[in-house]
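Fold tokens
===========
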Amino acid sequence: MTRKLQKYITVGFVSLGCPKNTVDSERMLAQIAQADLLITNEPDNADVVVINTCGFIAPAKAESIEMITRAVRCKKRGWVKKVIVAGCLAERMGDQLFSEVDGIDAVIGLDKRDSIVRIIKETISAEAPAAYLSSHRKRHSDIRLLDDRTRLLITPSHWTYLRISEGCNHRCSFCTIPSIRGPFRSKPLDIVLDEANELVSAGAVELNLIAQDTANYGRDSNDMPGLTTLLTELVKVETLAWIRLMYLYPAGIDENLIETVAANQKIVNYFDIPIQHVNNRILKAMRRPESTEQIRRLIDNLRTAVPDVTLRTTLIIGFPGETNEEFAQLLDFVKWAKFDALGCFAYCREPGTGAAELPGQIPEHIKQQRVEEIMLAQQEIAFAGNTQRIGDKLACLVDFADNNTANGRYYGQAPEIDSICIIKNCSAKAGEFVETKVVATKDYDLIVEQL
């Protein structure tokens, strides 16, 4: 008797956007892998394509629409059967996506993330498109989204992201995140620690803590411990070597946090602080609580308390009404602050945000000119900083190694967004630490030699 082979549903998965979206993708992929579904690395030739989208600014939306359109094109050619859209763009646009791109079979809101397997199976047999969306009130109170345990990592196994909260309570006038992700909700401490241990058991030696505002952890409830308590507990996790803090709003960085970082070797001396601007009028229009003076004082305090600290920031250029003088103040500040790394973005006018209705919208060509000025100034700062590091000894985490070619990072380089160390004569494998010496530079990168 011949046994009939089972036909598996093949699923192609496309993950777009920020590290928070990466965690959602990994959670969905784990559920798909645990079900009777087969993940394929060929999303253009699968029974179902799931696109986990980003959509909080226009360029991200454009990239998501492009990937959706590509999947639909494959469907029309008979290579793909069904197209499912999830993530932030799905949450933001809802069933409007069906008219945006004809051929989508299902749209999934953020609070339906953990129903992905059921939705895939329903979509395969469905004859009409379907939207899996919840009311605004319900999705924002759904605490289940905060449990990210059991993930199929799409980052290397030796480093990964640990999300400690969801949503945001800030009401920055340029940002759509609160309307998409809802209010700030901290993950319970025990769940964060369980997830950390799970990731470390799977081989992670570096955990990058992420949230919309990492510094705000625990402040949404009187019964919750704060970030410093969480860090103190994470330090106890055996074999975990690096803990990195990302997305720290400047107003939330207090003396206690700075002291905790300075006192614990496992917490790398790295602060990612999105300041966005420094002119007081612009900051007020952005609905940011900081002032120029407070931001300067914070940078001084960090460099005094943690002398070898690495500082990273993000700026928005061309905010409505930004004058030449206000931009010049920002440029002068960048030259003074000498950030080790800096991301710079031209302001995007996003529907539904307060800034979209402000007068004095800046022409695109002026915004791009100003972005270029900032980045040229930052390039000079970064290159000079690299040159000063020649001769320094650095412990590097190897990210890639093959045939005596290797690259990695020292504590001042976050994965995916910062520069790297090109390691000469490396005998270590990915995920291992090596002692190195900086021997040269290559643009933003360091050339180091294993000792």
About this structure: DSSP finds 14 helices and 19 strands in the chain. Residues 1-6 have pLDDT under 50 and may be disordered. The chain has three domains: 9-140, 155-387, 393-450. The CA atoms of residues 72 and 443 lie 40 Å apart.
